[in-house]
Amino acid sequence: TNVAHRNGDARKNGNGTKFCCFQYGKIWNIATIEGVTLSLVKKLRLVNSLFVIHMSDAVARMVREGFIPSSSASEIVDSQFRSFDFSPRALAYVLGGKKLCCTEVPIESIIPDPQPIIAVIDCFGNGKTMVLTRELNIENGYVQTKFGTLPFYKRLADVPDGVAAVIQGSSGLPGSRFAEIVINGENAAKKLGFKVGDGIF
Prior knowledge:
- This protein is an alpha+beta fold and 201 residues long.
- It is built from seven helices and eleven strands.
- The strands form two sheets. A seven-stranded mixed β-sheet has the order 5-6-11-10-9-8-7. Strands 2-1-3-4 form a four-stranded antiparallel β-sheet.
């Protein structure tokens, strides 16, 4: 994941936001750490800490060990396209059993909590939220949202045609599914007027 804005607060880091790496199960991940990029990793408690990469030192180590040629070092560190020039090399280096120059930092201390917003609008117009189904305040089968008091159904198949509702979505992990705002058979985003980033409460 590379969300590398270079304006505002990101200027303090020179050439964009910092990268980190972490391992979830057998999967190694390299990602930028500014903003809410990893807030769902924090919310789902996938890892307790992140390894913040010191890019210049990491590239220098790769050069010393002959992993990359010295002629590539400054190009990688100063690259406009770090997700192309740095991330794949860093990941290959780690998968080869090597250690990047990193500092381990508790995820709680550097990643903000996710907000209750629309995170993604899928191709059907369903609004996938950053709220876990178990976090919903369901009263008498309904959820109070910014878009009205909507009935809650566990499955899309249970929602009557043309009815706006909140459902347990398919995104997330087993036991930790994110809620979605849907209209069965229609485009909920267009009909209810929400867009990515809108609060749902």
